[in-house]
Amino acid sequence: MRATPSQVWRWGAQAISLAACVLVWHVLSTQQAHLGLVTFANVPPPAEVWDAAWELVGSPKLSQHLSSSLLRVASGFVSASVLGVGLGLLIGRSRWARLALLAPLEVVRPIPAVAWIPLAILMIPSSEGSMVFITFVGALFPILLNTIHGVNGVDPRLVASARSLGTSPWRLFGQVILPSAAPSIVTGLSIGMGTCWFCLVTAEMISGQYGIGYYTWESYTVQAYANIIVGMLVIGLLGMGSSALIHWGGQRLMPWHRTQGGQA
């Protein structure tokens, strides 16, 4: 499909924005600038990071790093999606579930992923399982809260109309509640996927020999500064791409929402 002029303009603007960021990074790092409390004296310039990236691409460990991280993120995300959406639908529709579950979940929600590391090691003997658990915790609450928000945001007039027409509870859920809450659920899934990658470095600090987060942390310990930025950029690109894929799939599964939003 041919790109429209507005899409070309948008892509061009984004490319210019990225180029400007790289240019600023180059100037600050090569000049070893000091901006108040922030110094760029030890920040490698883009050219050095580019060389480190090419070195990683040519390394046989790249596939092992990527496959390990992708498996951990996928396992944590799928588990969080099943539990988060299920609990969110239950809490959103059931007053008793809300009273019983929401308060404990709200207490646990602000705890950062790094604080779960000691407990994850104690609860889960497998280091691989512990790493998956950290990514699971990171993704769970964005998915859960967005699902609850989506269910609570269903127009009560739609529910009342469906009930007045004799719609059964299961059909009411499948034909009114779930489609109305779906856009918010997809948003939660997209945010949750991004949070999974955000927690990856924390998760792979536990143990392991492979993974993009482990590669980033190991680069810091050996003071390979360019490799740190390479790892950060890889995590950022993978997180952005996977979140965009979820958003794209959600739009294709929700033609009613896409039409209302005016986007294809």
Automatic annotation (TrEMBL):
SUPFAM superfamilies named in the record: MetI-like
Limits of the ABC transmembrane type-1 domain: 66-246
Chief subcellular location: membrane
UniProt xrefs under InterPro entries: MetI-like (IPR000515), MetI-like_sf (IPR035906)
Transmembrane domains' residue ranges: 70-92, 99-124, 130-151, 172-203, 223-248
One matching Pfam family: BPD_transp_1
Highest taxon of source: Bacteria
Gene Ontology, cellular component aspect: plasma membrane
Transferase in keyword set: no
GO biological process: alkanesulfonate transmembrane transport
Topological category with respect to the lipid bilayer: Multi-pass membrane protein
Subcellular location, record wording: Cell membrane
Keywords on record: Cell membrane, Membrane, Plasmid, Transmembrane, Transmembrane helix, Transport
Similarity comment: family membership: Belongs to the binding-protein-dependent transport system permease family.
PANTHER family: ABC TRANSPORTER PERMEASE PROTEIN MJ0413-RELATED, ALKANE SULFONATE ABC TRANSPORTER-RELATED, MEMBRANE SUBUNIT
Name of the molecule in the record: ABC transporter permease
Organism this protein belongs to: Aquabacterium olei
